Automatic annotation (TrEMBL):
CDD domains (UniProt xref): R_hydratase_like (cd03441)
Source organism, top-level taxon: Bacteria
Domain annotation MaoC-like: ranges: 34-149
Family named by the database record: Belongs to the enoyl-CoA hydratase/isomerase family.
Species: Streptomyces lancefieldiae
Protein known as: MaoC family dehydratase
Transmembrane segments: none
Length: 174
């Protein structure tokens, strides 16, 4: 025989739905506009960030952790992993995924150019800017310019992302 629960009952407010807790109202592919900018919060990189990324990536090149090796090879300090810098352009670091809500299908591709070194102590300012919106059947491709500036306003990364989204017509037709 089971004992009756002594936990208080869980009260759910009338009219409650999880959808009411979106960060921003979700939009469709058709609602997006070329030139819209989605910024990520600034991040100041620390030695702990670099060490954590080194552990995860298994990239143990001394340019990333050995100050003397870095100086002997023309760097002012150990260099933050390029892929770690690129990770700051992840769409989820911005509000973009919240704006597109349930129409996101997948991340199609990315490219980037590393324009300057990033070191521990640098603060990064990532942003995604919509540059193209291409209808593709029932879906749409969103192209964004991905950029990162440092605290001195220097562009340290420039690239591009492409995402596949469901278009409004495809969603309402089902």
């Amino acid at each position: 025989m089971t004992q009756p629960s002594t936990d208080p009952p869980i009260l759910v407010p009338a009219g409650f739905t999880p959808e009411n807790f979106e960060v921003v109202p979700a939009r469709t592919f058709e609602d997006l506009r070329i030139g819209e900018i989605f910024r990520a919060p600034s991040r100041t990189l620390t030695d702990a960030h670099a060490a954590a990324f080194q552990t995860v990536s298994a990239d143990n090149h001394p340019v990333h952790y050995d100050a003397e090796w870095a100086r002997r090879h023309g760097h002012s300090a150990p260099v933050v992993h390029g892929l770690q810098v690129l990770a700051f352009t992840a769409p989820g670091a911005t509000l973009f995924p919240h704006f597109i809500g349930e129409v996101f299908i997948r991340f199609l591709e990315l490219s980037c150019t590393f324009l300057d070194e990033v070191h521990s102590g640098d603060t990064l300012y990532p942003e995604l800017t919509i540059t193209e919106l291409e209808r593709r059947g029932d879906d749409g491709v969103v192209v964004t310019a991905a950029t990162i500036h440092n605290q001195r306003g220097e562009l340290v990364l420039s690239g591009q992302h492409k995402y596949l989204l469901r278009r409004q017509q495809a969603r309402t037709a089902t």
